[in-house]
Amino acid sequence: MIYLIHHLHTKNMANLFSKKQRNCVKLINYQKRQLQFSSDVGGGTFALNNFSTEVKRIEEASEVAKALDDYQYHMCKLHQNFKDDDPKFKEYLQDQKNVLKIITALRLTLSAFERDPENQTQSLSRIIQTMQKLLGMMDLMEEENKSLEENGIDAELKLDTKVRIPKTRIAEHEARIKKIEQLRYELENSEDGISLSDEKKLKIGNYYYHTNNKEKAAKVYDEILQKNPNNEIAQKNKKTVSDQVNKIFEKEERWRNKNVDLNLLARLVEEFFERDNFKKVETVKDPDSKHIHIQARKGGTLRALAASKKAVHISIKGSPNDFTVSMAMGEWVNNMVMMTATAAVTAVFTGGLSLLGQGAGLILNARFRQKLWDFITDAINSTSKLPVDTDDESVFSSYAQSRPHPPKPETPHDSKTDSSDSFSSHIKESQTTENLNDDTIQGQDTKFCVYCGTKIPTNAMFCSKCGKTQS
Length: 471
Description:
- The chain is built from 13 helices and twelve strands.
- The protein is α+β, with helices and mostly antiparallel strands.
């Protein structure tokens, strides 16, 4: 049946919209309890009085089909003089195909139902549901377009990045977009083969963008580009979103071929914050552990009062041999422990970000940012090629003992010192053998790394420089 429906609606669409003439026609006529189909969908008349069962369902189907038909006819009139390559006409044309397909399916189902009502009840119910979902999604999208226009936002295909939905109305838009996306998913995965145009999908992506849901917007644009890599509007919209998402983080770097245990790295970052007297540190992970997000804030002191709602955000994303670490300053995310790392990043972006260094408080100054970034870099280099096994507490404990610790928290006097007294310099100095006595490292008994010759504590399981296991 699906092949027959596809063949019929494709042939009839060619007749309805030839290059020479575009005809706007009604596909059904429903009055006096009779449902009459035009020849464009195969023809035929069905009198509701002839049905002995499911009469109310057939009445419902007739009403919904008539509403869909009215919609396609109205849209045909609006787009009759549009050029073939106009995006708005392409969007309408796909809508028209969907309406033609589902009304053809209804005619075939009613024909089969007359002969065998017992075995066609389920098919009738499915067709009615599909028509209701299609009509509902179209209505919701029209409603969303109008609502965006009220806020001065062009709902068309190319992103307008200069305006945003007021925060007081975000929830209203998000609820509507959620319904649209659910209907889209159900329609595209239905037996009736409903498919949406790229133009309509672009609008859905734009809806997500205007509600600050950049990741879902990018996902919709990617979906379009997978099927149509040459869609220029989707390419531009994806680039716009990607550029903005990348600006979430003030500092970002990608590491490859390091074989770093990302869970261990996250724990070392947590320890850094704790040693620097951050009052609250929270960490969340995605289920696959490929994305870890940490937030930390000072608070509790007069100096940090102005920044008590601000937090440092560290995002670790990827795999041991290919990962990215990012750093930003943003709002503290409430209830982050209930989220995935990906959701936490979205929440940070939605809640508002500021460049690290803007505002008051110790955690915002440039020296602290450099110290934190140097620590992360040194931790990556020091743990590189360590066994990826953070479930073993002894590995973490031994490494924590053997590696240089983060520096003490800054004091007003420290903040005036030269930038050369950075955390990176502190690490390097503590690792320079020529500054050490022959027998001790900061008062500890020492030995030489069997691989690179660096002096390390006798009880160290790993070299703090090359990271290799000591036999």
